[in-house]
Each structure stands twice: as structure tokens, then as C-alpha cells.
Amino acid sequence: MVHVTRGFTGRHPATDDRLPPGQYLTDDFPVLSAGPTPAIRRDEWTFSVTDGDQALRSWTWDEFMALPSEDITVDIHCVTRWSRLDTTWRGVAIDDLLADVDTAAEYVLARSYGGYTTNLPLEDLLDGKAWIAYEHDGEDLPAEHGGPARLLVPHLYLWKSAKWIKSLDLVEDDDPGFWESLGYHDYGDPWREQRYQGD
After folding, report:
1. 2-6, 54-58, 172-176: which range is least confident on average?
2. CA dihedral sign of residues 8, 144, 98, 181
3. What is the CATH number of domain 24-37+67-192?
4. In DSSP terms, which residues pair with 146 in a beta bridge?
5. Residue 147 has pLDDT above 90, yes or no
6. How many other C-beta atoms lie within 10 A of the C-beta of residue 137?
7. For residue 66, with 0-12 CB atoms within 10 Å meaning exposed, 13-18 middle and 19 or more buried, which class applies?
8. Could you give the CA distance from residue 98 to residue 94 in angstroms, rounded to a whole number?
9. Which InterPro entries does this chain map to (predicted)?
10. Which residues contact residue 17 at a Cβ distance below 8 angstroms, ignoring those fewer than 6 apart?
11. Tell me, what's the pLDDT at 15?
12. Which of 38, 49, 94, 104 is most buried, by the most CB atoms less than 10 A from its CB?
């Protein structure tokens, strides 16, 4: 079942060259989830990075909050065709989390509390392209938007920005995640309209 924010007002005219093809602008932030919102207490939250069977790093909430963070302003694009421009976030760059990690892996499987997964090329999380975000619009990230923390990969469709992030697993094979195994595109570039397999 997919959950959608009440009060979602729908389409605004597309007038910005930052809008990918097939998208429309909204000022709302619709909530779209594959299932119920998990309740994750910060004192029980952990985030880890693994490589195959090896656990490389792990942080508690307090340890994660002690890491260097960044303010981020990005456009986001949902596969359901809405886009929001200039959204503001705060989080930790994946570059910092993977600093000094030596791996042969070329892909990542992002895992969430609640069982959700999504697959991405490792290179799409590096070089300032992705973060673990824990604030939105200057406030703690609400649970319905992935709080306490979510992956943020704004250059891909938003389903790749896994909510309720639990771990990043560095892997050698590009195995499909939840939506990908149900027919969504393995990569999900909004500028190429890669919504579904074959696009």
C-alpha cells in the first residue's frame, strides 16, 4: 500500500528549466511509502557500513551527530512526477562516511528500518552527490519523510533516497532493491525519465 500526504494540491505549471521532462512543480512534500512508517527511537538507532560479510563502521545516534555535517540545498524529483526545487537539508556526506574505505565493490544496497532496500552504483554516492540527512527545512527530519535519518541522492528519483536508513552495504553485484524488483528502473535518472525497466 502507498501512503500519500493529505492536502497534496497537485500540479503547478512547469516553468523552470531545472524541471526534468515529465515532471511538475509542487510546493507540498507528498508522503509516498511502500508500507507503514516505522517508529525508530534515536537512542536505539544505529547506522553501519558493511563490505560483503565484513562490518566496516557503525555509529550510534550520538556518534553520528558528532560527525561533520553540511547544509544542503537541492532539487528533488519523485517518480510519481512531482518535483520540489531548492529543498533544504542537513546531513553527513557519504564521502566522509566512506573516507579511507578500501573496497572492490562497485555497488551499494541501501537498507532501511522496516525492510526497504534500494540499489545504487557506488560512484553515485561519492564526490558530493549524496548524504545521510537528518534535518529538513531546519527541523528534525519527520518520521513520515524518513526520520530520524534518510539517504539523500537528489540527482536520482527520490525512491533511491531510502527513508529510515539503517546501513549501506558495499556489494560487487547490482542486485535489485524493493521497487527495482517490482519493475522500477535499476538506475532512476529523472532527466532520462528512467521510471521503469526498459525506459
Report:
1. 2-6
2. negative
3. 3.90.420.10
4. none
5. yes
6. 12
7. exposed
8. 6
9. OxRdtase_Mopterin-bd_dom, OxRdtase_Mopterin-bd_sf
10. none
11. 54
12. 94
